[in-house]
Specification:
heterodimer, A: alpha/beta, 4 helices, B: 145 residues, six-stranded antiparallel beta sheet, 3 helices, 6 strands, 30% strand
Chain lengths: 110, 145
Amino acid sequence: MTFETHTEGHYTVLALTGEVDLEVSPVARKQILASLNGSQPLLVDLSAVDYIDSSGVASLVEGYQLARSRRLDFALVGVSEAAMRVLRLARLDRVFPIYASVRERMAQAS
Amino acid sequence: MAPTERMLELRFPSRPDRLKVVRAAVRCAAQCRGAGDEDTDRMVLAVNEACMNVIQHAYGDARIGDVIVEILAGPAELVFRVLDFAEPVDPERCKGRDLDDLRPGGLGVHFIREVMDSAGFVQAPDGVGNVFEMTKKMMGPRLVP
């Protein structure tokens, strides 16, 4: 897994790439939580995630809960089909705000 | 019907970096048996989760122990067995959480039960360790829906 962070508008965008499994999910978790340290809302881009397991999903849930506790916007964008299947299995597709792209989220927010 | 063909056996240390190998093996086995892409992905996830449970919980205190994954194929099913050599597990402690109880963790058991037709602990050989067995029914080249 690799990750890349950039800013679009007032959003922090954290893009995860590759396989988010038990070996690397601690890194994903750390990045997600660190991205919520400030006052910027966070979009997690999962468009290039080939595989995610329950440890990766747990990192997303933790980020979502931390964002809510800080009243920060948190959403998933561009979720790959592989990742979406796992989110559906966990019924989290009904919990996380999910958008097709960063642009779509920004357009809806404006 | 009892499995008739032993497709493969993997033995590896209970380390997260070995999960890639397990996933690749399960993917190959499922595809060899004619599973479609989505069913293959689901079986890969379920076996990965079962191995994760061993890696995270079986040996305790961050110790490393051996894990064995066996894949057996019958005419109408694929059977995945995950064996460890740790202290016996209390199956009552391996129940998934209520999905409405939103919190990190606790999803692995849910994934396994959603994906597999049956899953649970079976008698360990010689009474040593634990054997978690998962069965996915298949019908010819296609999985039973």
